[in-house]
Amino acid sequence: MSASNAIRRFHRWVSIAFTLTVIANFVAMAQGKGAPPPWITYAPLVPLALLLLTGLYLFALPYFAKGGFEAKRPIRPAHR
Question: Which of 25, 34, 58, 66 is the most buried (most CB within 10 A)?
Fold first, then answer.
């Protein structure tokens, strides 16, 4: 498995973990026993930071591929 595929798979699993932590946060707030513990409130931030890093990498990956962005798009003159 290549590094890109491993990062893509990691990104998918972290997105599931992020979704579960957000759901747990809403369930804790719906209990009505005051504010939830801080560890539940801040738990989604760790997967969110990982999603940001891996998502930016996956977004930039096609632009740094062989040839890059400029090789795929022909340059057209501006119309007047």
Answer: 25
